[in-house]
Amino acid sequence: MLILIEGASKSGKTTFCDYLNSQLKGSLFYKGIYRESFNDIKENWRLGCFLSLIELSNEIKKPIIVDRFHLSEFYFSQEYRNGIFTSDYFQRIEEEILNISHLLLFIDSKEMSDESNKLEILFNDSKLDKFIGSRQWMYNHLDLISRIIDEAS
Model-level pTM? Predict the structure, then answer.
C-alpha cells in the first residue's frame, strides 16, 4: 500500500510520517524527491522515480509511507522549476496510483498560505482515496487510518 502524506511546508508532515511509521509494523518511510537538489534533473528521470516507487509499493506487501509525492511535485515544479512536471505527468501518476492500494492524507495547515491553498486545490481535484485534516486530527484518528491500511494490505 502506498500512503501519501501531503501538505504545506511546516504543517507537520514529516513528524506525522515518523509517528505513523513507528505505529505500522514493517512499514517503509520514504521522503519525497521534490527537493531542490533535484532541480537540474530531467523530468523523465523524476517521472521514472515516481513510477518506480508506485511499482515497488505494488510488489512488496508492506505499507510505504511517502512524505510528499505528486501533488507537491506538481506545485513546486510550477512555482520554482518552470513547470517541468506537467499536468500530463500528474494525470499519469494519478492513473498509476489508482491501480494499486493507496491512501492520500493531506495535513491541513493552520496558516492559509499561497502554498497551502494551491496544494489543497490539487488535493481536492485528486481522484485518489483521501482524507484531509489537521495534524492533530490525524493523530486522533490513527485507529481509523490504521484500519484502512490493514484492510487494504
Answer: 0.85
Ordered alpha helix ranges (H), the chain: 13-23, 43-59, 70-80, 87-98, 114-125, 135-140, 142-152
Q: Which residues have C-beta within 8 Å of that of residue 115, sequence separation ≥ 6?
A: 8, 9, 75, 79
Question: Do 93 and 54 contact (CB within 8 A), yes or no?
Answer: yes
Of 41, 5, 3, 10, the C-alpha closest to 116 is 10
Percent of the chain residues topping a pLDDT of 90: 11
Tell me what the mean pLDDT of segment 1-29 comes to: 87
What the block records as the C-alpha cell of 111 is: 496558516
User: Cβ–Cβ contacts within 10 Å for residue 103, how many?
Assistant: 19
Please give the average per-residue pLDDT across 82-109, as a whole number. 86
Contact 16, 5 (CB under 8 A): yes
